[in-house]
Protein 1
Amino acid sequence: MKKLPEFENETALALSTWVEIMKAFTRIRSLELSLIEANSLTIGQFGLLELLYHRGEQSIGAATKLSMSTPGNMTVVIKNLVKRGLITTHKNPSDKRSSNLQITEEGKSIMDSLFPEHSQRIKSFLSGLTSEEQKEARTLLRKLNKSLR
């Protein structure tokens, strides 16, 4: 077995922390996907529906940014959700060069039934941490995200 290189303590700590973040993310994402895929959605489709469900109408650009997607992927997600009748698109009245997205009644109906279970599952996934630990983790991850901008 190949021996891992030796690192100074700060680098070793950073690598170990990164591994733990990725392990937790991968496990939670896998558990989250089982519910989303059981409802015939992709993670990208669910993310966009959830965004429109909670924040209302959005421009495609804003939706791409807020859902942490890429323009290429968002195009496919939008096309498939429109085809299924879960969202609609229309020209932005104040800027004819862009389009806005809106969730349909059918999309709302799906989210009305799916989101409560999703949120309870996320709560259960994080139940290994106390409320205080969750707040601390959120604060630290926000601080990390801000430092990366």
Protein 2
Amino acid sequence: MAQKARILIVEDDETIGAGLVTALEHENYNAVLVDNAEDGVTQMLAEPASLVISDIMLPGMSGLEMMQQIKRTHPQVPVIMLTARTDEIDRVMGLEMGADDYVTKPFSVREVVARVKARLRDHNIDVSTPKFYTFGDVEVDLSRRTLVKAGDASRLTTHEAGTLAYLIAHRGQDVSRDELLENVWGYTVSYSTRTVDNQILKLRKKIEDTPAEPRHILTVHGTGYRFEP
């Protein structure tokens, strides 16, 4: 029998936390609930989860700070952020800091469960490109989300790896920002094309000799980007 996926829930509202635990366990997940970010980090170090659901506003360390710590040690683990905030800038900030998805309160637990299923299904890179790819003086392992340039190693965030994988899979082709948002972030409606642009800037710093004059990730004005090996 396949092992149940372990879902870590970090939520200080007892009613919301208990509701998520019940709904996820009904779907045969192993749900673990803690009420603060520090315990969330401890749980991930002791027994890493397959996915993390976290409120942003928590006592002590914020959910965003916790997410950054988790992503440093477990970059492949998807993180879904919960928040009562409705301003787009907060959503964009969370996504740019590494969150894989974002749900605004109040929400239906069915919606969160659907997001969990989607992220567990597709957080592994699943595009027509090799997991290990070399171009110029860059070696990238997309399955491990690691990159080595001229001997210097660095880690890729989930979205950096997904963006690079998608561009490599479509090398030589023009790829729009909306296409990247839909296929890497999973949004059919653009939250902000700036989100994609910021990911590209971060990738260029890791792979280009001169990020301001890129050789591999080229800007296609009026469209988006194109990858050239």
